[in-house]
Q: What sequence folds into this?
């Protein structure tokens, strides 16, 4: 690696990856025919070479004098690397010409070795699924149990459908009769904890609440769920409610519900209107239930509804307890059918095929928090964390002492403001986002359906706790993201995947790819500085015209 990415490579007059001798192709010059073969040819070649060199030098000089705006680019360039190196070299020995190497890689080729990272992640995943290595992690053991149970059981149609119905009814707390508060918890658990469709959805956007009508009808599931699927759901719900309703009763009830409201505009929804539709529910009770699912929910923030009339009509009918148990049977059966269709995905899934594996893997990727904890155990370590923080501190210190940047802040007399902003910069590592007190679910190699719902429930619990604590939740396992991302103005996040390029099992005092990581950090810090909202106009102008 150090041969092709040597710190000295490109450390001279050019960081473009080629020297003047191997620069632009020799220019084709139109010449009159010259006689005198050897002497004339030698003279011509010398002249062309000299012309090429002059053109190349002029182009290079102009490129640096008139280079493009660096708003989103790494804040370093070859002729200033020495200034940065003077700061960084004291903190990160023994790498020589450290920031020259950083700049070279930034200009040459991007930041992180994507292929290496992908290979390592695929190996981890394969080892977990096969049970070859669980990396000492309860999360990895849970994932192994989940995949094993899914591959062995998901194609068993009758067992799968009946278990989905019975387990889901247990999970959402379905009873023979349900009051207004129980119905609201059931509605929110279905859509938020288990990611199922319900007749309306509530979303907390911190400064306002959105309540959307979700026009769910049984006909929506015909392409996923055949008659046997519907009959299984109906029979299990009948058994739970101790009723004996037929499919005719089900469809007759459905026809009483309002039709599709094409008016999907946003309308403000008064709290009193919602409370009235929910059976005159108490205000404090409504807020308490919503906070079980949205920790920061506040009824004083405005609420808006889409298709408001149809939404409120749906809720009034479904929340009317005098319509039970038929209304309850309708809601429970519809949610069960949705769960069956989402889990089996295919209409026909009754034999182990390659398609079975793809379905199981699609479900496995829903468990982001389990994958996150697994990658933390497999790819990180306290030693790597210390090194990562050392690179971050060195990069931040280099930015603090970077004379060209300080001159830009000085244009508005804001160098102290710059120091404060950079001083508040922090690094968030994957291990910082593992909440150890939220117990990882046990997922045995049997009982796929229960494992499925346990995994989703764990995912919800972790995300809710992070919301309560104000912890940012980045996209974890779903993204094969190899660089860092800016969480907010003063925080950078290193995803677990970035660790896969950081010299696994190396004893080097410096991370193998520290230069690329530092480049990414410097770029994100520079972007945070540019997007900061409290610069004076003079400072903004200086940033805007920085070349």
A:
């Amino acid at each position: 690696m150090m041969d092709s990415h040597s710190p000295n490579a490109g450390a001279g007059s050019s960081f473009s990856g080629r020297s003047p001798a191997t620069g632009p192709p020799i220019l084709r010059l139109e010449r009159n025919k010259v006689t005198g073969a050897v002497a004339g040819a030698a003279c011509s070649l010398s002249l062309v070479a000299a012309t090429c060199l002059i053109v190349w030098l002029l182009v290079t000089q102009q490129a640096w004098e008139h280079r493009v705006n660096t708003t989103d680019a790494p804040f370093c360039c070859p002729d200033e690397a020495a200034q940065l190196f003077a700061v960084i070299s004291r903190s990160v020995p023994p790498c020589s010409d450290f920031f020259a190497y950083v700049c070279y890689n930034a200009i040459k080729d991007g930041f992180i070795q994507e292929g290496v990272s992908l290979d390592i992640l695929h190996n981890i995943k394969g080892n977990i699924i096969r049970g070859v290595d669980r990396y000492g992690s309860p999360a990895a053991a849970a994932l192994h149990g989940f995949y094993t149970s899914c591959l062995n059981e998901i194609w068993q149609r009758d067992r799968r459908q009946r278990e989905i119905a019975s387990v889901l009814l247990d999970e959402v707390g379905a009873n023979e009769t349900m009051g207004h508060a129980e119905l609201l918890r059931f509605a929110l658990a279905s859509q938020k904890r288990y990611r199922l469709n319900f007749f309306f959805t509530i979303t907390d956007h911190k400064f306002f609440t959105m309540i959307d009508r979700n026009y769910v009808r049984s006909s929506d599931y015909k392409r996923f769920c055949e008659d046997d699927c519907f009959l299984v759901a109906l029979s299990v719900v009948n058994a739970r409610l101790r009723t004996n309703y037929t499919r005719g009763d089900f469809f007759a009830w459905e026809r009483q519900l309002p039709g599709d409201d094409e008016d999907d505009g946003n309308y403000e929804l008064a709290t009193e209107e919602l409370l009235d539709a929910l059976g005159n529910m108490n205000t404090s009770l409504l807020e308490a239930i919503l906070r079980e699912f949205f920790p920061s929910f506040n009824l004083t923030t405005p609420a808006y509804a889409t298709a408001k009339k149809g939404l409120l009509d749906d809720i009034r009918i479904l929340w009317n307890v005098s319509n039970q148990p038929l209304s309850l049977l309708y809601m429970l059966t519809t949610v069960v059918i949705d769960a069956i269709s989402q889990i089996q995905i295919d209409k026909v899934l009754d034999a182990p095929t390659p398609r079975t594996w793809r379905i199981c893997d699609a479900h496995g990727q829903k468990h982001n928090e389990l994958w996150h904890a697994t990658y933390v155990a497999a790819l990180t370590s306290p030693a790597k964390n210390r090194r990562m923080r050392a690179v971050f501190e060195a990069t931040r210190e280099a930015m603090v002492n970077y004379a060209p940047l300080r001159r830009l802040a000085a244009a508005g007399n804001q160098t102290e403001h710059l120091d404060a902003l950079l001083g508040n910069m922090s690094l968030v590592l994957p291990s910082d986002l593992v909440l150890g007190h939220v117990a990882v679910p046990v997922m045995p190699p049997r009982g796929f359906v229960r494992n499925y719902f346990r995994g989703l429930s764990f995912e919800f619990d972790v995300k809710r706790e992070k919301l309560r604590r104000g912890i940012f939740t980045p996209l974890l396992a779903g993204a094969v993201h190899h660089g860092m991302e800016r969480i907010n103005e003063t925080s950078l996040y290193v995803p677990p995947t970035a660790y896969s390029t950081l010299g696994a099992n190396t004893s080097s005092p410096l991370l193998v790819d520290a230069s690329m990581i530092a480049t990414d950090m410097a770029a994100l810090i520079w972007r945070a500085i540019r997007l900061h909202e409290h610069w004076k106009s003079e400072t903004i102008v200086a940033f805007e015209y920085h070349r």
In short: The first helix runs from residue 37 to 65. The chain has three domains: 1-66, 78-123+379-544, 156-350.
